[in-house]
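Milestone M4 deliverable, item 7.
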Amino acid sequence: MMIKSMVKVGCFSTLLLFSIPALAVDHYDFKTCKEKAADIQEKISYAKQSSNQNKIDKFEHKLNRINNKCTNSYLQEKYQEDVDDEQEDVFEAINELKQAQQNGDTQKIAKKQAKLEKKQAEFKAAQAALEAFKNKVKANQ
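Output delivered:
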């Protein structure tokens, strides 16, 4: 019975490990401030074409905020914070796995191992997002 559950957790962990980086692409948009402003400007144009004053006002407000407050340094800090948070989660998962191993509960060990693998994949995805953003900023300079 325990072997079946460990195999199930192992299979789930493998699937999860390959799916997390794909999910990260949806989570991170990798846009610089200049690109964010261009996107909003395009939305303003569409709103003007449809004479939707509420959307025009909303998008112009967003554009003002981006133009006045957005910096690529700030965005990079946010990506770095994500990396730091994910790294913290990995350390926590390692400690939980060690605790389960000390207790000898094979089911908990399998669950904690799966959690660790998930957290490691999320950490790698956050690192990749940070590097992709840095590369995009360099390319746009």
